[in-house]
Specification:
six-stranded mixed β-sheet; alpha+beta; elongated; 10 strands; Immunoglobulin-like; four-stranded antiparallel β-sheet
Length: 187
């Protein structure tokens, strides 16, 4: 019986502690667009950029932080793997202050290193936008980023190189043959 009374007193105490934090965290009113970005056929060794727009719908100015992070395995879309290195993603400003009832753009750059092993891949990572707050609970919105790299084209270019060399050898040989044949006739 004493346990039930202690438990009954503990529940209101927890509610008094947690509910104000939940209400304050829900007061942070902001949005991010687009909610999903797809980058297709990005060749390794190249970079591309796009913009995220952060909307501060609150009545006061807010600071926002932006960072890349891997999605939980169970929430990653089928056919994609984890993005190999979040340092390949950079932001024009990883922390930005946005005035009340306004919006700002952040340029996101995705640069894939020049290595054949990164060709023909399909990755997913998330870009988290968090409203900085002194509250216990903070709200984070995320943007899904899908990156697919160009399939490897190196073997085809090597085949072309070999064919070009073979044709050049045949033409040079034929030219040499004709040259020496003409020279032999004139003697």
């Amino acid at each position: 019986m004493v346990r039930h009374i202690k438990l009954a007193g503990l529940i209101p105490a927890l509610l008094v502690t947690i509910l104000p934090s939940l209400t304050l965290a829900q007061d942070v009113n902001f949005g991010v667009s687009p909610f999903e970005v797809r980058i297709s056929d990005l060749p390794p060794g190249n970079a591309t950029e796009f913009e995220l727009t952060i909307h501060n719908k609150d009545e006061i100015a807010r600071n926002f932080t932006i960072a890349a992070f891997p999605p939980p395995d169970e929430e990653r879309r089928a056919g994609t793997t984890e993005f190999p290195d979040d340092s390949w993603i950079s932001f024009s400003s990883p922390r930005i202050e946005i005035a009340a009832n306004s919006q700002a753009n952040v340029t996101v750059t995705v640069a894939i290193p020049q290595e054949p092993k990164w060709a023909g891949e399909d990755w997913e990572t998330w870009l988290g936008v968090t409203a900085e707050s002194s509250d216990l609970l903070g709200l984070k919105l995320h943007v899904r980023l899908f990156v697919s790299t160009d399939p490897a084209t190196e073997p085809m270019s090597k085949i072309g190189l070999f064919i070009g060399i073979a044709v050049a050898i045949v033409l040079l040989s034929y030219g040499g043959y004709r040259y020496f044949r003409q020279r032999a006739k004139h003697r």
